[in-house]
Write a structure and sequence with these properties.
The chain has 475 residues and is α/β, with parallel strands linked by helices. The chain folds into two domains: 79 residues, no CATH class; 369 residues, Alkaline Phosphatase, subunit A. Helix 1 packs antiparallel against helix 8, helix 8 packs antiparallel against helix 9 and helix 11 packs parallel to helix 12.
Length: 475
C-alpha cells in the first residue's frame, strides 16, 4: 500500500474523529525524531519510584522561608558596608562559586539591609528553625532535608528554565529533569502519562527538546469535567466506535511499520494513540475527589478558599502518583514572572502566597507518609532563585542568584537535616554550595539512573548539566 501525503492526512483526520485532536497533540509524536531509546530499566537499584516536583515561580525569599538571618534585623536600614559583613560583597566569593552571572545583576548591589518580614520557630526533634509563614511545613521538619546553599547563574526569570534544565535561558535548550526521568525509565502505568505538568509553565513551555515531544509533560487541569483539553472525542462518538477506529489506525500504522521496519516514530505513534484512548477513562477517575474522605479533603485545605486550588492540585498529585505517574510537576504562581516575584510588598505578597501552599504541601507529605508512599516518592519544593538581603524600594527584595534555599523529602532522603549555608546576611552560598543540577543528580541517583548513560549522540552535555549528588542528605 502506498503511504502518500494524502493518505497520511486522512489518517490524521480519522484520528481526530476517533480520539479528539488533543490525542494528536498529546505528545506531538507525529513530527518527532526519536533518539535511540534506553531499555526503561534503572541502571542500579533505586530508592525511589516517582517524583512530585513543587516549583514556586518568581523567586521565594530564603530569608523569609527556610534560612533565617537575624543579622538582617540587627542591622536593618544600614548599608552592608556599615556592618561587620562588608566582605560579602567581595567579588572573589563569586569567582569561588564559579558563577558567571547572566542577565541584569543590578539587584546584587542593593546594599541597604531589609529586615526579615516574619518570625521563625522550631519544630520536631531536629529543631530546625523555619518561617512562621510555613507553620504546617515546619511541623514536617523531621521528614525534610533543607538545602540552604543553592546557586544559579541567571538573575532574571529565565532561571526557571535553568533550574529545570541546568542551562541558561539563552543557551541551546536541553531536556529538563522531568523529561530525562520520562525518557530513562519504563512506564509504571499503561493508562496514564509518565510526566504530567499542572499549573503555568516556565518560559519556553517545553521539556524534552532534542529527546522529542514524546517526552514533554502532558498538561492537566484539575477540573474533573475537563482535565485534558480536547481529550474527549468529537461528535459524541461511542466508545465501541472509537476502539474500531483506533484498531484501523493501528493497522494502517502497522503497514507503514512493515515498509519502514526500523522507524521508531511509528511504534511510538501507535503507543501514544493507545494511551490517549485509555486516558479518557483513567484521567477523570484519578481526578475524582468524591472517592476521598472528608478528613482527607480537609487535610489538603479543600474546605478553605485560600488553600483550595493548590490543595486540589496536590491531592491530584497524590492520586496520580499512586496510580503510576513517574514525574508530576506542579507550578505555583501565576503571571509572566511568577507571583512570588515580590519586588515590592514582600510581606503581604509572601504571607498570602505562603498561606496558599503551606497547608497543602504539608498535607501531601503527611498523606504520602500514612499511605506508605513517601518512602519511595521524592518530593521537591523549589524556586528559581532567592531574594536580596538589601531592599528594593521601600518594602521589597530583588532577584538573588548567589544563595537560596530548596528542600527535598521522601524516597531515600534523610529527614530533619540541613545541608549547606549562606553567610550571615544570606548573600552567598558559603558552605557546600550546590548548583541547581545537583538537585537533578540527587534525584537521578535515588531513581537508579546514571545520567551519563542517557546521553544522546550528537547532543553533548556539559559537566554542569549532570550535577553532583548531594550525598549528605541521602539516608
Amino acid at each position: 500500500m502506498k503511504l502518500d501525503h494524502q493518505f497520511e492526512l486522512s489518517r490524521r483526520t480519522l484520528l481526530g474523529s476517533a480520539l479528539g485532536f488533543g490525542a494528536l497533540a498529546l505528545n506531538g509524536i507525529m513530527a518527532a525524531e526519536e533518539p535511540a531509546l534506553p531499555d526503561g530499566k534503572p541502571h542500579f537499584t533505586p530508592k525511589a519510584k516517582r517524583v512530585i516536583w513543587l516549583f514556586m515561580r518568581g523567586g521565594v525569599s530564603h530569608m523569609e522561608s527556610f534560612d533565617p538571618k537575624p543579622a538582617l534585623n540587627k542591622f536593618a536600614g544600614k548599608s552592608i558596608g556599615e556592618t561587620p559583613y562588608e566582605s560579602v560583597l567581595d567579588a572573589s566569593k563569586i569567582r569561588k562559586l564559579r558563577i558567571p552571572i547572566k542577565g541584569d545583576a543590578n539587584g546584587h548591589t542593593r546594599t541597604k539591609i531589609f529586615p526579615m518580614q516574619t518570625g521563625f520557630g522550631k519544630n520536631g526533634q531536629s529543631g530546625i528553625e523555619l518561617s512562621d509563614w510555613f507553620p504546617h511545613i515546619r511541623s514536617c521538619a523531621d521528614d525534610i532535608a533543607f538545602i540552604r546553599s543553592m546557586w544559579t547563574s541567571d538573575n532574571n526569570h529565565g532561571a526557571q528554565v535553568q533550574f529545570h534544565s541546568g542551562r541558561h535561558f539563552l543557551d541551546p535548550r536541553v531536556p529538563t529533569i522531568g523529561a530525562w526521568i520520562n525518557y530513562g525509565l519504563g512506564s509504571l502505568s499503561d493508562n496514564l502519562p509518565q510526566f504530567i505538568n499542572i499549573g503555568p509553565r516556565f518560559f519556553d513551555k517545553k521539556d524534552a527538546h532534542y529527546l522529542g515531544p514524546a517526552y514533554d509533560a502532558v498538561n492537566l487541569k484539575i477540573d474533573p469535567k475537563n482535565p485534558l483539553d480536547y481529550a474527549k472525542p468529537d461528535n459524541s462518538i461511542l466508545a465501541v466506535d472509537q476502539r474500531k477506529n483506533l484498531e484501523l489506525i493501528n493497522r494502517l500504522n502497522g503497514l507503514a511499520a512493515e515498509r519502514y521496519p526500523l522507524d521508531p516514530i511509528i511504534e511510538a505513534r501507535m503507543k501514544s494513540y493507545e494511551l490517549a484512548f485509555r486516558m479518557q477513562t483513567a484521567v477523570p477517575e484519578a481526578l475524582d475527589f468524591t472517592q476521598e474522605s472528608g478528613e482527607t479533603k480537609k487535610l489538603y485545605g479543600l474546605d478553605q478558599q485560600e488553600t483550595k486550588a493548590f490543595g486540589q492540585q496536590l491531592l491530584a498529585a497524590r492520586r496520580l502518583s499512586e496510580r503510576g505517574v513517574r514525574f508530576i510537576q506542579i507550578m505555583h504562581g501565576d503571571g509572566a514572572a511568577g507571583a512570588w516575584d515580590n519586588h515590592s510588598g514582600l510581606k503581604n505578597g509572601h504571607a498570602r502566597l505562603s498561606r496558599q501552599v503551606d497547608q497543602p504541601t504539608a498535607a501531601l507529605l503527611k498523606d504520602l507518609k500514612r499511605r506508605g508512599l513517601l518512602e519511595d516518592t521524592i518530593v521537591v519544593f523549589a524556586t528559581e532563585f532567592g531574594r536580596t538581603p538589601g531592599s528594593q524600594g521601600a518594602d521589597g527584595r530583588d532577584h538573588h542568584s548567589f544563595g537560596f534555599s530548596v528542600w527535598m523529602a521522601g524516597g531515600g532522603i534523610r529527614g530533619g537535616v540541613v545541608n549547606g549555608a549562606t553567610d550571615e546576611l544570606g548573600y552567598h552560598a558559603v558552605e557546600d554550595p550546590h548548583y541547581v543540577t545537583d538537585v537533578h543528580a540527587t534525584i537521578n541517583h535515588l531513581m537508579g539512573i546514571n545520567p551519563h548513560k542517557l546521553e544522546v549522540p550528537g547532543h553533548k552535555r556539559l559537566e554542569m548539566d549532570f550535577g553532583h549528588v548531594i550525598r549528605e542528605i541521602i539516608a
